[in-house]
Amino acid sequence: MTSQVRGSQLTRLLGQWHALPGRHRRPDYAALAAAVRGLIADGRLPLGVRLPAERELADSLSVSRTTVSAAYRALRESGHLTSRRGAGSWTALPNGHRVATSGLWAAPDDLDMIDLGVAASAAPPELITATREAADDLPRYLGTAGYHPVGLIELREAVAAGFTARGVATSPEQILITSGTQQALDLVLRLSVPAGAPVLVESPTYPNALAALAARRARINTHGMDAGSGWDGELLLGALRQGRPRLTYVIPEFQNPTGHLMDAALRERLAATAHTAGTELVVDESFVDLPLDDDVIPPPVAVFDRHSRVVSIGGMSKAYWGGLRIGWVRASAPMVQRLAAIRVGVDMASPVLEQLVAVRLLRQSATIVPARRAELRHRRNTLVETLHALLPEWSFAVPPGGTMLWAELDGPVSSALARAAEDVGVRLAPGPRFGLDGTLERFLRLPFSLPPTDLIEAVRRIAGVHHDLDRAAARSSWRTPAVIA
Questions:
Q1: In the predicted model, is pLDDT for residue 473 greater than 50?
Q2: Which of 243, 268, 280, 333 is deepest in the core (most CB within 10 A)?
Q3: Residue 372 domain-assigned (yes or no)
């Protein structure tokens, strides 16, 4: 975690901090304080980070030091900043706040909040029966210590069978069970990415992957994706050849957050180029079970792997339930053993009962997964129709699968819109959360994992504050500059 943020860095993160509904009624210091609170709320400004000195930030923002001083005072009064005279000011969290399901900081009284920060669905009804059956099977494990660093053999067999059915011959020895896909990625990074090593990721990409890479102090380079068409194959492969990163992280199935699907030809070339460049290719398959328009999707990237360069990670959060916390790594058997050795120093092993539940859910995949797809297809179509009706000025490609779409707004106001939406009971993940240094302000990720009624109401509220944002910006742009003497 960065211990200090410079004035230039905070300025980039703040972006269009003036653009807030009612900005014409709000003094500069209040708008600045609200923008900093927004950065803390959506996780782009971590807790315990030292903010720049007042004069440094004032110079960077081209405002008076009095404005910054008043903003810092307002942040201290709201509990978002702690200061020591002569030492500096650090970001903090007001008493009574907690971590929301999306990983964002939130107050505890948010029961009526429509949370569009999370791209995962509620549990399937089969979970209750699977849990009861798993509990009945638990006694045969109770005579042991319960630590299985690589995972229960029956779950590893089930996951390996899933890979084999998709065309990638896999043995249980090639599978490591983890506590979710995020831990799978973290373990791979611990093994493969030393501090300062170059890595390549898509932009935009999954925020928690960026956080994991930052924790490893990796040197992050990005391949910019087109919002409408996805990957530019020549640019992506060129970045691999020229940069020769230690590791490349991609999400080929219904990419998070854009929803794009990588074609088979690029998958094959990607695996071959990774070998030539000496790059380990980490393929995140979190959404592989969720094609919505066609059950046929391209072969896994690992099908084209001839040199053990591809490491596949995935889990049960998207097609089944995020609360189950079951993920996995598919790699060579020796690498699985090395990952297990690292894993022992992290959390020993995944819970036995949850693994037994996962086995039973995977046995019912032929029932659970098609039902989940049908549910998500209906919700996606509802969200698309509502956006076309209430926010026709936004543009987006309808994703062929997954749980989200990537909307391009009519201005660089994603963070401002997220702050305004919070006031009307909608939690959003603004575009900059999916990139580096405050970029992607013209974009917003919109999951369609909630019930249709919630999606319709959320878009209605977003449209209301968005139009207020437009009117406030228009009025503000026509104001006569005040003369200050």
A1: no
A2: 280
A3: yes
Residue 406 contacts residue 443 (beta carbons within 8 Å): yes
Q: Among candidates 207, 186, 188, which has minimal Cα distance to 404?
A: 207
**Model pLDDT, residue 112:** 78
Residue 28 lies in a domain: yes
Map residue 404 onto helix, strand or coil: strand
Cα(141)–Cα(131) distance, rounded to whole angstroms? 15
The CATH number that applies at residue 12 is 1.10.10.10
DSSP lists the bridge partners of residue 79 as: none
What pTM does this model have?
0.82
Distances (CA, A) of 282 to 270, 305, 413: 11, 12, 32
**pLDDT > 90: percent of the chain:** 72
Neighbour-count burial of 345, counting CB atoms closer than 10 A to its CB (0-12 exposed, 13-18 middle, 19+ buried): exposed
CATH (domain of 452)? 3.90.1150.10
How far is the C-alpha of 434 from the C-alpha of 207, rounded, in Å? 5
For the CA atoms of 351, 353, 358, 359, the dihedral, rounded to the nearest 10 degrees, stands at: 120
Please tell me the distance from the alpha carbon of residue 187 to that of residue 393, in angstroms, as a whole number.
42
| Measured CA distances, 24 to 422, 462, 464, 469 (Å) | 20, 20, 18, 11
Task: Work out how many domains the chain is built from and give that number.
Answer: 3
Helix (H) or strand (E) holding 446: strand 443-447
- Residues 6 or more apart whose Cβ sits within 8 Å of residue 73: none
Confidence bin at 452 (pLDDT 50/70/90): very high
Q: How far apart are CA 424 and CA 438, in angstroms?
A: 24
User: What secondary structure letter does DSSP report for 138?
Assistant: G
Same domain, yes or no: 356 and 401: no
Q: Which two tokens stand for residue 214?
A: 């930052």
- Backbone φ, ψ for residue 51 (5° rounding): -80, 160
Q: What is the DSSP string of 290-324?
A: -BSS-S--PPPGGGG-SSS-EEEEEESTTTT-GGG
What is the per-residue pLDDT for 172? 98
Task: Please give the torsion angle defined by the CA atoms of residues 357, 359, 361 and 366, in that order, rounded to the nearest 10 degrees.
Answer: -170
**Per-residue tokens: 444:** 């917003």
- Find the domain containing 407 and state its range: 113-119+367-477
* CA–CA separation, 427 and 416 (whole Å): 12
Nearest-CA neighbor of 444 among 454, 453, 435, 452? 435
C-alpha 180/C-alpha 437 separation (Å) is 27
